[in-house]
Amino acid sequence: MAFEFDADAMFKQCALYLSKGLVLVRVHGIYPDGRCTCGRPDHAIGRSGERNVGKHPVGDDWGNRCATTEDHILEWLEDGIPFNVGCRLGPDGGVIDSEDDSVEARNYRKSIGMDGLETPTWTSGKSTHQLTKWDDRLADCKGTDTPGGLEVRIGAGNKAIQSVLPPSWHRTGVQYQWKPGFGIDEVDVAETPRPLLVALSNGAGRGAMRPTEGPASAMLFGEIPDGKRHRAILRWTWYKIVNQRNPLDRLQQEILTREVMLLSQHNCTPAADPDHVRQIIADCYEHYRRKVESGWRVGDEDFSDDSVVNEVTQIEQAAAADTAPKRPAAGSGFELYGLKKVVTSKTEAYEPGDWRIEMIHSDPPEIVLCVPAWEMTPCKGRIHMSLDTFRSAPKVAAAVFNATRLYILDGDAGKWQKIWKGHDACKGNGFKSIPGLMELLLQRKREEDDIEVGTSSLRYAQLAGYVLQVFRKATQPRNEENPEPNESGRPCWVAPEELWFQWGKIWEDISRSHDVAPGERNRIRSKLTEAMGCKDFVHRRHRFQSGRLEYVVFTKEWVEALEALAAGAGNNWTVKGDADGG
Ligand SMILES: [Zn+2]
Predict the structure, then answer these.
(1) Is the dihedral of CA 224, 228, 230, 234 positive or negative?
(2) pLDDT tens track for 44-75
(3) Distance 83 CA to ligand 1 centre (A)
(4) ipTM entry
C-alpha cells in the first residue's frame, strides 16, 4: 500500500547510510491518506502544495539537527510519525546530488560521460539522482545550479540543502529506489567528474558574485596561490599565444613553453606540476589551432581581458569534456615531449626530463626508450631498439617515428644530432663538450630498470607479440563466394579457421618498425613448430591469374601457440613493462 511506513526497513537503510558516512536529515513523511506529516492543510495529495509533500525537512533549524549515529535514528522512530530520510549535501554532508528531470538534462549528463558513472544512483518519480563527492573547488558556488538542465544540489553557501533518499515515499505513490547494481552498498561514491565541476564553477561566475580575476599578467607580478594556479597559467598562456605574430612557429612554441614553465615554477606556491603545465600549454595550442582552422584570425578584440577569460573558459570546458588521456600534437617541440631544455652559453641542449631508458639483457640486448608523453601512441610510450640504433641519432629518430607514427625528432637533422649525441668541445661552448641525451639517459638509468632475461624468452615473447600485431590486421577475403588469400602475402582469414600468410612478408612488415636480428624469425618458427609438435609449418598453394604462390596456413591452434609464446608461457621470467609494445 502506498505511503505505508516500514520502521524496520527505514532503520536498516539509515544505519547503512550512516556506515557510509552520510549525514542524515529527518524529512516529513506522508500519511497513508496522502497528507504531509507537517500538518499544513495545503500539503496534501490533490491540494495546491502537493509538490512539497514528503519533501521538506522537519524543523526550520534542521541543518543543526542532522543524524550522525544510529541513536539519532532511534529517537526519530520514538514518536511513531512516518518520516522520509534525506542526506545532507555540500561540505558538511561530503556529497552532492545531480538529478535529471528532463530530456535535456539526460542528454547533458550523457554528453559529459556521467550517465554510466559508477556511483550510488537512485530514482524518484521520473528522475534519476547520482550522488558524487563534494569538492572544495565548489566552495564559491551557490546551493543549487542547473548546468545543461541537470539539477545539481551542491549545498555550497550558507543554506543547508538535502536530498531525499530510498526507502522514502514519493508523492506519486512510489518509493525512492536504488538503481540495481548502483546501490550505496554496491558502489562507492565517485568523485564529481571534472566536466561537471568545471560547469558548476563557471556557473559560479553568473551574477555579480564572482570576484574579478585581475589581468592575465597578474601571473608575472605576484605569487599565485594553490587554488588559482591552473586558471592563472591558462590565462597567461592564452594571452601570450594570441599576442604573438606566428604562435605556431616551432621556435616560438619552444620559447613560450619555456617561459610558462619557468613562471609556473617561480610564481606559484607551491610550484606547479610540470606535466600539468605542459598539458595546459598543449590545450591552449590545440584551441588556437582549431580556431585558426575554422577560419578565425586574431583581432584587436582578442587582446582584451574579457576575451581572454572567455576563451580560457572554452579551453577549460573542452579539456574537461575530453576525458581521454591526451598526447602532444606532432611537431610541438622537445619540451612538450618531456625533455628539459638547458642553454649553456651559446649552445642549446636538452636533459632527459621525463625520458628514461630500460635495458633488456636478452640475446641480443635491447634498450627501451620510455617517454610518458607518447603513451597515447601505438607503442604506448615504449620504443624498443637495438644498442646499435641507440648509438645513432638518425636511427633513434626513425625508431621513434615508426613506433609512435607521429613524432619526428629529426626535422632539423643537425640539431637532433647534437641533442642526441652531444656537442664536441669547441670555441662556441668554451672548449667544453656537452653530453647528449644518449649519454645522459644512460647515466640516469637505474639498475632496477634493467631486465634480466635468462633464456631470451622475453625476446621470444616480444617477437611473438610482433607477429600477433600483424595478425590483428588480417583481412577477410574480398569475394566470399571465391575466397582467396592476399596476393601481397599479408594475412587473410581465407576460411573462418584458416589464416593464410607468407612468413617472409610478416617479417618484412615487422622490421619496418622493429629491430629484428638475423635468425630471430627462424627461432620463432622453431619455437612454434616445437610447441605444436610439427616439423614445419603447414604450407598451401593458391593459383592466381599471375601464377601460383605458396602460403603458410595457421589454424586456431597455431594462433593459440603464438599467443602462448607472446604471453611467455612455460618460461620462468618476469616481464617488466610491455613485451608487445614498440
Ligand atoms: Zn509538508
Answers:
(1) negative
(2) 998 888 888 999 999 888 988 899 999 999 99
(3) 11
(4) 0.98
